[in-house]
Fold this sequence. Notes:
Elements: H1 2-19, H2 27-34, H3 39-63, H4 69-93, E1 97-101, E2 104-107, H5 108-128, H6 144-161, H7 166-177, H8 181-207, H9 212-232, H10 238-266
Antiparallel strand pairs: 1-2
Helix pairs in contact: 1-2, 1-9, 2-3, 3-8, 3-9, 4-6, 4-8, 5-10, 6-7, 7-8
Amino acid sequence: xxxxxxxxxxxxxxxxxLIGGGGSILAVPVLAYLFSLDEKVATAYSLFIVGTxxxxxxxxxxxxxxxxxxxAGVFGFPAIVGVWLTRHFIVPxxxxxxxxxxxxxxxxxxxxxGVFAVLMVCAAWSMLSNKEHKSGTGNVGYNYPLxxxxxxxxxxxxxxxxxxxxxxxxxALVILANLEIRTAIxxxxxxxxxxxxxxxxxGDAMTIAIDWLFLAQFTGLSIIGIFVGVYFxxxxxxERLRKGFGYFIVAMxxxxxxxxxxxxxxx
Length: 267
């Protein structure tokens, strides 16, 4: 199972390189089901993996002039606060069993993986939809109250489930900051990198024991996969791959929901 897990680490990077996003959302189920990590550790490690791979991608975007650093700071600050509050205070304080519904125990794991399954479906929908993101004019301006609120909410969601949420950030940057779509994509990668890595180091790295060797191996394979994916992306139809990967994420979401809820109800 661990060998398959390391192969999946490489596949996560390849998918990021081929289609530009989505692959990192597989990190949590890979860590939880193939490496048997509990929900707190799986989501924590996912933050590091997502943040590091997004950082690699954002540097590529920066070299092309597609990162608006001011917007990354304005939107990223409340997102970082949201991730930090969630990982440092909220997740460690959650009891193993949140409440009982008759004879059914509704656990912390069920809550975290339930939200994660919903997020996977939303991410898959954004990949399968034929509707393209509307682009801003590039005349950047900020709706500060909404940016602060949305940044904080996305940070809390990221902290809770360990996923980057780029499909939420990109339209927010276009609508609330009027960024041109390509700049919004590059800037979202930088925001994901900042909030995920800082949330991990200011939260989980201070509250749980980290297996740094394993984390470095898994993340290293994902980064190698990015460059492999970028290379093969020159010869492969990215749109067809995106849709295929979207259906795969839906299947994974069904697997997660079935494993955590249906099997629990039947046991």
